[in-house]
Amino acid sequence: DTEVTQTPKHLVMGMTNKKSLKCEQHMGHRAMYWYKQKAKKPPELMFVYSYEKLSINESVPSRFSPECPNSSLLNLHLHALQPEDSALYLCASSQDLAASTDTQYFGPGTRLTVL
Amino acid sequence: SQQGEEDPQALSIQEGENATMNCSYKTSINNLQWYRQNSGRGLVHLILIRSNEREKHSGRLRVTLDTSKKSSSLLITASRAADTASYFCATGSMRFGAGTRLTVKP
To answer: For a Cys staple, B4 with which of A57, A77, B97, B101, CB 3.0–4.6 Å?
Structure first.
């Protein structure tokens, strides 16, 4: 199984809502990533987890809160978002963060709209 | 911050033609990777070239790397309409260039 799944596919939320994005992989990968992608732009790294510990936080606002409950799951908790946070949120995984030839496997993304 | 920068930003060709995209980067690298993204979907890994390699092939894809010029190119031969997508280079494993939007007209 070389698939990364993400739920939901689409999410519309108000600025006062609390919601969560979920990501799952069963490839035994020990590194997992969240990216944000605006239209016609490349993915921007947000967070990296390595062996279930937060390894990189790219100075992301605290209204985004990542969580890695176990080696297969990655969540992104959303609270008090702004309309400019509307984007495609991509999850990815790779075998090992430390490997110099690590390849990432991406999920299909969650299209988030903040009203 | 992004380390790879692609050009052109957009490329439109006819089916059967070859497409060449270029990527430049600023710092030393261990490897460079190319990914494809169909509209609004996740990225798919295409090919990885190590810093000690100069050329690599995979099917209709040919990647070159010139570390002295800090640049790489991706050539897609005999393009198909299904190759229509955005193509990104990535140095290391986490940071992507601006991308080239390729349109292949049937």
So the answer is: B97
Strands (E), chain A: 4-7, 10-13, 18-25, 31-37, 44-50, 53-57, 64-70, 73-79, 87-94, 105-106, 110-114
Left (φ > 0), alpha (ψ -120 to 50) or beta: where does A71 sit? alpha
Check A109 against B42: CB less than 8 A apart: yes
- Tokens (6 digits) for B75: 């050539």
- Of A20, A32, A24, A22, nearest in space to A4 by CA: A24
Q: What gap in Å lies between CA A92 and CA A111, rounded to an integer? A: 15
What strands lie across the sheet with A18-25, from one edge to the other? Answer: A4-7, A18-25, A73-79, A64-70
Q: Percent of chain A having pLDDT more than 90?
A: 87
Chain B residues touching residue A108 (CB < 8 angstroms): 41-42
The model's confidence at residue A2, banded by pLDDT at 50, 70 and 90, is: low
**Rg, C-alpha atoms of chain B:** 13
pLDDT of residue B28: 86
A62 to chain B, closest Cα gap in Å: 19
Do A46 and A36 form a contact (C-beta atoms < 8 A)?
yes
**Residue whose structure tokens are 């040919």:** B62
Q: Which two tokens stand for residue B45?
A: 């890994």
Burial class of A4 by CB neighbour count within 10 A (0 to 12, 13 to 18, 19+): buried
pLDDT at B1 over 60: no
